[in-house]
Amino acid sequence: MNRLTNKQIILGVTGGIAAYKSAELVRGLQKAGASVRVVMTSSACEFVTPLTLQALSGNPVHIDLLDTDAEAAMGHIELARWADLVLIAPATASFMSRLSSGSGEDLLSTLCLATDAQIVVAPSMNQAMWRDAFTQSNLENIIEKGVKILGPDEGQQACGDVGLGRMLDVDQIVIEVANLFESHALNGCHIMITAGPTREALDPVRYISNESSGKMGFALAQAAVEAGAKVTLIAGPVQQPTPEHVQRINVVSTADMHAAVFEHLPNCDMFIGSAAVADYRPAQVAERKIKKGDQTMTIELVRNPDIIAEVANASARPFTVGFAAETNDVIEYANKKLEQKNLDLIIANNVADKQIGFNSDDNEVTMISRSGSTLLPKMSKTKLARQLIEQLARHYLLSKQG
Ligand code: PMT
Prior knowledge:
There is one protein chain. By secondary structure, the chain is of the alpha/beta class. It folds into two domains: 8-179, Rossmann fold (3-Layer(aba) Sandwich), CATH 3.40.50.1950; 190-286 and 295-401, CoaB-like (Rossmann fold), CATH 3.40.50. The chain is built from 14 helices and 19 strands. Strands 12-11-8-13-16-17-18-19 form an eight-stranded mixed sheet, with helices on both faces. A five-stranded parallel sheet has the order 2-1-3-4-5, sandwiched between helices. Strand 6 (153-156) and strand 7 form a beta hairpin. 44% of the residues are buried. It binds ligand PMT. The site of ligand PMT has 29 residues, from helix 10, helix 12 and strand 16. Residues 194, 196, 212-217, 254, 273-277, 279, 304, 306-308, 322-325, 337, 349, 351, 357-359 line the site of ligand PMT.
């Protein structure tokens, strides 16, 4: 399995002898499906050339904090936002000290301050330096701040010493990094997710639909699989690739989506309605292409079934989560939908803002339950989906405890 598919990883390389292994690490992470961008400290460049890592990663290598050209291409704040995870391997004692003190004196340490992604450190140093009280105290401090530590390993060191301090094996680092994306929060759960638009035919070549790309729903499907769920994704007509281990059922109209949802509903533990379902469909679908006629044309529309409301009111109902796409009075309308549709939770997004909502890479949402609301600020739909799935898992487990 490509366990790092769609993951954006910054590999920070610092100046230790194990820096030569970073070339292998770039390859290993990419082979597991990740996109990798490399950030090097200036002393790392003494051990391995930026050109090597640039060629392997397929992206420019970032070194200087004050390089105006590099900042114009992708500045340190953009890099910090881009990352799903920052892996520092090898991490020297000196870098761990900078991380511990929160100093932002080079690009890599500044980026660590600016990112909200998980920081992972694979230490590599002489065994005496590893045992040193300063290093151990820095280690304790960064663990307390949420940094994850991989290794170090024990064995023969480049300097001839034997002991703890070798960088963990590259393959092992890749496995451990992949494990960090798997939360197991939804182990054993069956989740159904609807995504994308529905299309309502007017005639054989025309339809009514909307701008939904499916990005939000597909990101949720991927995040749910990573959290251990069995996922059935009911997808309207979109061009998104199917995430691994997701059962995808393609549909076109609201009637198709309704039928697919109810066919797969038995034994479903959670339902997430992220699809932009057409509320109405033409009363008549012409068998042949409608010909141009008068200056005006009237199309009679009839109501579609409200899929999520029917799911939420089914006898053996799953934990039911809706989305509310609103252009104004977002929270007020979302609260109404939460009640009217009998949902457990609703995720409100403002689709008047072109930077978020329909067909954008980012979203910003407010998750509303009957006990309160949480704002999840603007971020990529991939990151947002992971955060939402963690939160939904928590609410779902609480609901089961009564
Ligand atoms: O697909 P993307 O381009 O990534 O865009 C994501 C999104 C903006 C589509 C997504 O974040 C979102 O807001 N989805 C819900 C869109 C919508 O139809 O919202 P609504 O407020 O009209 O519907 C409320 C809820 O009822 C939704 O869960 C919807 O799936 C459900 N519904 C609506 C009508 C209907 N007939 N049946 C339904 O199940």
